[in-house]
Amino acid sequence: MSGEPRTIVCKAAVVMAAGQPFEIMEVNVAPPKRGEVRIRILYACPCHTDEITQRGVDPTAVYPCILGHESCGQVESIGEGVTTCKPGQKVIPLWEGVMPLDNTSRFTTKDGQSIYHFMGTSRSDGFMSLFGLISWLSAASHNTPWCLRSALPLSRMIAPWTNLGCVGLACVEGAHLAGAKEIICVDINDIKLAMAKDFGGTKFINPKNYEKPIQDVIIEMTNGGVDFAFECTGNTTVMRNAVESTCKGWGLAVIVGIGEAGKEISTRPYHFIVGRQLKGSVFGGWRSRDDVPKLAEKVINGELKLGKYCTHRMKFSQINEAFDLLKRTECIRCVMDMQQ
Amino acid sequence: MSGEPRTIVCKAAVVMAAGQPFEIMEVNVAPPKRGEVRIRILYACPCHTDEITQRGVDPTAVYPCILGHESCGQVESIGEGVTTCKPGQKVIPLWEGVMPLDNTSRFTTKDGQSIYHFMGTSRSDGFMSLFGLISWLSAASHNTPWCLRSALPLSRMIAPWTNLGCVGLACVEGAHLAGAKEIICVDINDIKLAMAKDFGGTKFINPKNYEKPIQDVIIEMTNGGVDFAFECTGNTTVMRNAVESTCKGWGLAVIVGIGEAGKEISTRPYHFIVGRQLKGSVFGGWRSRDDVPKLAEKVINGELKLGKYCTHRMKFSQINEAFDLLKRTECIRCVMDMQQ
């Protein structure tokens, strides 16, 4: 042991207010308190969930904050009572239960202004204050097999309803691995539809090619609707489409995307009365300590092709460029090296 | 056998168009076709589901039609190939799978105009044409233990969110029998709230006594929300309240009421992302042939107090009065004798 952990100074990408670009600045990171762990972040990926908070359309957003929630790193120091990990261990911080236990922040600006955490997994240039060890893995991102758990058991078919970004494609892959017979991919971008084939998609629909509501197209195509529909856009109209594209009796629509502030999902209650269900999914329903090691094993064994999602690499100092890349069709995930 | 069944003439309460009162008239009832059963209805109860169709606010309604779906009777004759029942047997027609197999009607006016069935269980003065035997039972109504099936397993508490009519009270009783520890009853009518105590309710809330949204009251009262919320009104605002009164993580809201035409349920997608679910329930999810005999046994054994729901009795000729009674607080169910 090198003694008690102390406050350290790191570089972090801070969003000072809604709509502001990422500003790389030095921040103070307080030492981990009882039950908490401080992690040196090695790699991180920008995600649309960060981006909608940066833009200011996430209804739950608070500022200033350090965004980022897809990362991996190494335990730097541990607080009192932590027995689940040791300094030096490789870990993936996850969303579930990773905010400081006392609901305060461990981040401050050099001037002492408090900075909010984001999804409990805020990224700084090297260190984060978190409680609890999640799991270990040397790869870059954790959110690949989104939906594997929600999708079981798959009986007939599935429609990942999505702009086929990382989450949508992971949803396709998850459905494929779970044994879905038909995987209908929906996107208004033909390039993304073509990509989806690589991940296990079997049918491809571009709503722009149809004059009627896309749920009507799917109901006809499947002779009554799909068993599962995953919405991966955050668009409330698409959420409605997803509900209404599932079959009567047992159809399940799953909201995966984060809706914009003030937007609501609406539909006729009749759709539920006749047997449909609606639920949401965060991190695919995976439990961090129990499930992520199983996912890690699948990546190591080559069952999950994590590398397919990592289309670009950049330095942390290029963070604003990395977020611009997200808007471009050919980018699924850009891995940032936090040491550069 | 008394030979082939023939068309018979019966009295029926017909709604000729939306908003029209029930008109008792003679109708022709065609003989049962292959796989169908014709039933002499002995007793029937008016229900709000009939009433919203009579008023014209059910989006799926078609006219003219013979309403009614809560009844019991005796098999009058059977079509070719029917092996599950015999003439004379006591039966309860249920909604599930009881429309004529060929999607046509067995009812016509004396002038030959076709009359629609309603929920497959239309009531006439003595005879109905249905396919399939459901079950037998000499009592008057079948919809008591609504929700027993949907409610299991009950872990913490349940809020049957309801105007405590027959369905709402049955929901309370179902939750009680299923072992719910706390049963929160919500109604804007104090008399109904008092009734709910008899059926197993443990807490009673009248939204008129609060200035804030009732879901906020429930969230506070339960320290985070209920495990299950059953909406039994058909009011889309109450459906939203029900969703938003369930707890994060696993809260399940169940829509039981039939929404009015053109009305939609809306809520923030965030409520689902954090773990809530929404589904519907028809006939409590019971399967007719498999489950209703089990319910009948519970009534016969005294486990289900069906008699408590039958607050009034009338003659079939008083059908319009019976429907007026539905609007009065003290009436739960009015049993009509179809022979009078």
From TrEMBL, chains A, B:
InterPro entries linked to this entry: ADH-like_C (IPR013149), ADH-like_N (IPR013154), ADH_Zn_CS (IPR002328), GroES-like_sf (IPR011032), NAD(P)-bd_dom_sf (IPR036291)
Cofactor(s) required for function per UniProt: Zn(2+)
GO biological process: formaldehyde catabolic process
GO cellular component, one term: cytosol
Keyword terms: Metal-binding, NAD, Oxidoreductase, Zinc
Recorded GO MF terms: S-(hydroxymethyl)glutathione dehydrogenase [NAD(P)+] activity; zinc ion binding
SUPFAM superfamilies: GroES-like, NAD(P)-binding Rossmann-fold domains
Occurrences of domain Alcohol dehydrogenase-like C-terminal (ranges): 167-297
Pfam family, one: ADH_zinc_N
Family matches, as Gene3D superfamilies: Medium-chain alcohol dehydrogenases, catalytic domain, NAD(P)-binding Rossmann-like Domain
Domain Alcohol dehydrogenase-like N-terminal intervals: 34-126
Domain of life: Eukaryota
Family, as annotated: Belongs to the zinc-containing alcohol dehydrogenase family.
The protein's name: Alcohol dehydrogenase
Species in which this protein is naturally found: Cyclospora cayetanensis
